[in-house]
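Please produce the structure of this protein holding nicotinamide-adenine-dinucleotide.
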Amino acid sequence: MNGTPRIVVLAGDGIGPEIVAAARQVLDALGEFSYEEQLMGGCSIDEHGTALTDEVLEACRSADAVLLGAVGGPKWDTTDPNAPRPEQGLLGLRKGMGLYANLRPVRPSPALVGASPLREERIAGTDLLVVRELTGGIYFGDSGRDGDVAHDTCEYSAEEIDRIARTAFDAARRRAESSGRKPKVTSVDKANVLETSRLWREVVGRVAGDYEDVELEHLLVDNAAMQLVSRPADFDVVLSENLFGDILSDEAAMLTGSLGMLPSASLGADGAPGLFEPVHGSAPDIAGQGVANPLATFLSAAMMLRHGLSRGEDAARIEAAVDAVLERGLRTPDLASGTVVQPPTSENPAPEREVGTEEMTAAVLAELA
Ligand code: NAD
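Below is the modeled complex.
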């Protein structure tokens, strides 16, 4: 990529503007970026009567990357089917930008392994990425009802499988650059039963031929669901079709036990801009209070650097800075209260200290300096 990267920023609603402003500070500490702030979601409904205008979609399509906060909130909740809804903006972006690959990394920060519902020794060392096909399969096939009988059709073309497989293999290679591990792709299917899965396995195997440095393993989805909780640290990239990926990515996300820490990326064709956003929503219950956890958005910005702007080293710096501030004991209230409280131990002597968005951001900036 030549010149200053152009990033469309969709701060959105609720805590969106707070966490995205914090993420811009983190990006600015790493280099020069040109930002274009645009409205999407509830704020766009207020201004334009629609969650996503054609102008904003066009701006996103011609950017180098799109950074999103979160959208939605009680103000726009409605039972009127004709009223505009904030989520329509998200769906419009996915469709309009051709985002067929959803990437969700699961990497519990060492200081937070105690928050996982799994035992510490089982979760330690987990660092995996779920690559889910997002625009095909049973969610988009023919469906219908005839009296008491209903059907949903799962359909995949070799071309759709080929492109998502390449996304997974490319991601495995990029991850290996910063981790030093041998890259591996675990492809999930149900090839013992489903014809689409047999085509899936065949095409993924073919694509693997172009990536001889990347190890490929195939797992049946039922087995994958078990292995993800019994040996999560053995996975690198998990590649899956839409329905299986929907379920497995939520299962994998729970491994961290902490919603405020999870980033995601949605990617389209090679060279087209991707969309990077935290997994959590707009948290209207805490908006404007200065207590939102900005770390999932920082980690989404890291994904943008790695997967969208080919700046893997800068991405790794953000990830290391996030780990460091957690190791120093800093916790936003969502991490400090309830689920994640950890007493100081000999390995983690820093006592926990509750901080707001601003102090957490300042601490990450200090780590980067
Ligand atoms: P939510 O993720 O917004 O909030 C769930 C709980 O987690 C809340 O208690 C919230 O305070 C807390 N939380 C979430 N993110 C946090 C953060 N960064 N720091 C601290 N605490 C955090 O989910 P919800 O309450 O079900 O939804 C609220 C709104 O967000 C709804 O309008 C929903 O439609 C929308 N939503 C948007 C997206 C998106 O933009 N991609 C995703 C999910 C939900």
